[in-house]
Write a structure and sequence with these properties.
Length: 247
């Protein structure tokens, strides 16, 4: 895959960076996590795997992430869903296996709801479905104060010393995309990987997602010693095996 990504303009003019390799269907489209980008280990490893077997593969950055345009603090879950739909509709061709990591897992299920005839299967890693609702329900007092005063909270992060912005707009808009209060209407194959040492998305959430899905073809693999990222070589091997089995 070329190091320099291609780009495509959304309806509002924001340009999204992506890599796309043509190949046989079903293709694979990778949806990254919150504050992640398409240069991560899972995205790149999956690209090499698909390229070597001649399978179509697409990875991209949401607006405000990685090499795409836009400003992170101005963006919402709805914006990122529209970005994923732009890639699905205008870059990827034919049926797709959507692989979503963390927030990308939430986006994957939202894509299936929006384009049910395009999604052949869903594979998620630590799917952060309805994550903004959980964030709202567990806000510390200093976060409530910052959001009330400035409309933004600088959330501490072990990966970003200065923290990163969580806006009131992001939290409130995210509620519009909640899935777990109703059945999730996708009846294709769903595979979920989740580390039981995940300190960002509780492993039991995957059980709630399974319960909400109308599909009967749902399999969850819990990995006792894995963390949220699940980017170790053995974790990535598990992911590639799932893609192979559903292709």
């Amino acid at each position: 895959m070329a190091d320099t990504p291609a780009s495509i303009a959304c309806e509002d003019g924001v340009r999204l960076a992506f890599h796309h390799n043509p190949g046989y269907s079903p293709g694979v489209i990778f949806c990254t996590g919150f504050r992640s980008d398409m240069t991560g280990g899972k995205a790149v490893s999956l690209g090499a795997f698909c390229r070597d077997r001649g399978q179509q593969y697409t990875r991209f950055d949401y607006r405000g992430h990685g090499q795409s345009g836009g400003v992170f603090a101005d963006s919402t879950v709805g914006d990122w869903l529209k970005d994923a739909l732009t890639i699905l509709d205008s870059v990827a061709t034919g049926p797709q296996i959507v692989v979503g990591s963390s927030m990308g897992g939430w986006i994957a299920f939202l894509l299936a709801r929006a384009r049910p005839n395009r999604i052949a299967a869903i594979i998620t890693v630590a799917p952060a479905v309805d994550m903004t609702q959980r964030t709202l329900a567990n806000l510390p007092d200093d976060a409530k104060h910052q959001l009330g005063e400035k409309g933004v909270w600088m959330r501490p992060s072990q990966y970003e010393p200065a923290g990163y912005p969580i806006t009131q707009k992001l939290l409130e808009e995210g509620i519009n995309h909640n899935l777990l209060s109703d059945p999730i209407h996708f009846d294709g194959p769903v595979r979920i990987l989740h580390g039981m040492q995940d300190d960002a998305v509780p492993w039991w959430l995957s059980l709630d997602i399974s319960d909400a899905l109308i599909s009967n073809d749902v399999k969850i693999t819990f990995v006792k010693d894995a963390d949220h990222r699940m980017s170790r070589p053995n974790d990535i091997k598990r992911l590639l095996k799932l893609v192979d089995a559903l292709s």
